[in-house]
């Protein structure tokens, strides 16, 4: 298999009535381009790494009502899926994705070029614990994150280092993500996260300790009658206590097909 395939991305210029070659994007071995089916956006993924799942899609939809011209930072951006979807679903002014794995950050950068989002979306290749050296306190309106779910030495251990870092708290723990969110957020800034429902006590206690008050919570279940597997949570820095619990979000109907709400989130019509 050829290691580098050049994909020529053609952008149609309707004013001049001709096609213009906009970008040469390298697609490496074991990589693919996935169509996000929203505003023509696409994303590069490596089949040997950790590909994004429905949790990232649901988190981006959960945060779609952020204020216009918000400055956003995505902690542990991975392929850049959440930030890319936010560029499509919101009117944010700038989003910065922080990714510790160099090759994953480089792949996310190629997706940015593929989508012509260079003026709106930027990648930083670093550990989120080092961000105090890069940003002043209170620099962002919104912090969003889909962090590793598993505590170290728990759950299924992957042979892939990329998957291991993505799934387990090796490079940064839950407390690191939330405490860094407090540092980066402006007063009354918004924090959005998706995580395992089984860790809800850890999440809420850590948020309150960091003075990010939980304000909105939604459980995600595979179908009705099933226990929640994931939780979406929104917090506000230095806010007063009041938590709104939304109805559960169900992914599948009894027949195994996506529910109408999931289809709406994916912007797909029911087949």
Biggest sheet, open or closed, and with what strands and sense?
A: 9 strands, mixed
> How far apart are the first and last residues' alpha carbons, in Å?
35 Å
Summarize the helix and strand pattern as letters: EEEEHEHEHEEHHEHEEEEH
Average pLDDT, to the nearest integer?
A: 86
- Helix vs. strand class: alpha/beta
Instruction: Assign a percent range to the helix content.
Output: 10-25%
Overview of this protein structure:
The protein contains 7 helices and 13 strands. The chain has 271 residues and is of the alpha/beta class. Helix 1 (54-62) packs parallel to helix 2 and helix 5 (174-184) runs parallel beside helix 6.
